[in-house]
């Protein structure tokens, strides 16, 4: 089932998510619905707060980026994380971020039609549970790390626009206000605060 994506302005996007256990109600169905919602919205990641749940859960698929990349782009850049991964992350917690910060033009399904260059670390080491509640500690890099860090922010109550300068945020205020009021058209289902 495709779920409505919570729009900027909803307080749940600012809540820090809580850990869950395998008894969380209808978890497999929620994960299945999150995958379906993410793909239907042309996203590469989706966090539980974006579908109205204040839990530490997100899904991501960086393999899409590599499969949609043309050969010229693949040759021009070194992508250490190619061909990408498709993964469920439950109760994720960052152990360490490594490497230099690098810029990448990010967007967010909860903040449609706004894209900005955001600086994030090259690598991140995470401790998390997979969908079977098996524990992992793993280091991710490249675009995969970028998506993970973006989605991780969601379960910590942060948004990519929080990394912008106060001036840039001020310049985006009208667009952000329009999103929070529902004065925006997107080609996927959204839920706006009233």
Automatic annotation (TrEMBL):
<dbReference type="InterPro" id="IPR023635">
    <property type="entry name" value="Peptide_deformylase"/>
</dbReference>
<feature type="binding site">
    <location>
        <position position="154"/>
    </location>
    <ligand>
        <name>Fe cation</name>
    </ligand>
</feature>
<dbReference type="Pfam" id="PF01327">
    <property type="entry name" value="Pep_deformylase"/>
</dbReference>
<protein>
    <recommendedName>
        <fullName>Peptide deformylase</fullName>
        <ecNumber>3.5.1.88</ecNumber>
    </recommendedName>
</protein>
<keyword id="KW-0378">Hydrolase</keyword>
<dbReference type="GO" id="GO:0046872">
    <property type="term" value="F:metal ion binding"/>
</dbReference>
<comment type="similarity">
    <text>Belongs to the polypeptide deformylase family.</text>
</comment>
<feature type="active site">
    <location>
        <position position="151"/>
    </location>
</feature>
<keyword id="KW-0479">Metal-binding</keyword>
<comment type="function">
    <text>Removes the formyl group from the N-terminal Met of newly synthesized proteins. Requires at least a dipeptide for an efficient rate of reaction. N-terminal L-methionine is a prerequisite for activity but the enzyme has broad specificity at other positions.</text>
</comment>
<keyword id="KW-0408">Iron</keyword>
<feature type="binding site">
    <location>
        <position position="108"/>
    </location>
    <ligand>
        <name>Fe cation</name>
    </ligand>
</feature>
<dbReference type="GO" id="GO:0042586">
    <property type="term" value="F:peptide deformylase activity"/>
</dbReference>
<dbReference type="InterPro" id="IPR036821">
    <property type="entry name" value="Peptide_deformylase_sf"/>
</dbReference>
<feature type="binding site">
    <location>
        <position position="150"/>
    </location>
    <ligand>
        <name>Fe cation</name>
    </ligand>
</feature>
<keyword id="KW-0648">Protein biosynthesis</keyword>
<dbReference type="GO" id="GO:0006412">
    <property type="term" value="P:translation"/>
</dbReference>
């Amino acid at each position: 089932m495709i779920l409505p994506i919570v729009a900027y302005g909803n307080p749940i996007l600012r809540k820090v998510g809580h850990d869950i256990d395998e008894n969380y109600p209808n978890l497999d169905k929620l994960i299945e619905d999150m995958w379906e919602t993410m793909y239907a919205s042309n996203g590469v990641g989706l966090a539980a707060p974006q579908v109205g749940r204040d839990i530490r859960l997100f899904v991501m698929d960086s393999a899409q980026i590599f499969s949609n990349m043309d050969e010229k782009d693949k040759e021009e850049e070194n992508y250490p994380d190619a061909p990408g991964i498709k993964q469920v992350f439950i109760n994720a917690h960052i152990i360490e971020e490594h490497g230099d910060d690098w810029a990448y033009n990010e967007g967010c399904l909860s903040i449609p039609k706004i894209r900005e260059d955001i600086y994030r670390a090259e690598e991140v080491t995470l401790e998390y549970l997979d969908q079977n509640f098996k524990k992992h500690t793993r280091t991710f890099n490249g675009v995969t790390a970028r998506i993970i860090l973006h989605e991780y922010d969601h379960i910590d109550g942060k948004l990519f626009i929080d990394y912008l300068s106060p001036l840039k945020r001020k310049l985006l205020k009208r667009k952000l206000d329009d999103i929070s009021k529902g004065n925006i058209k997107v080609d996927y289902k959204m839920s706006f605060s009233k």
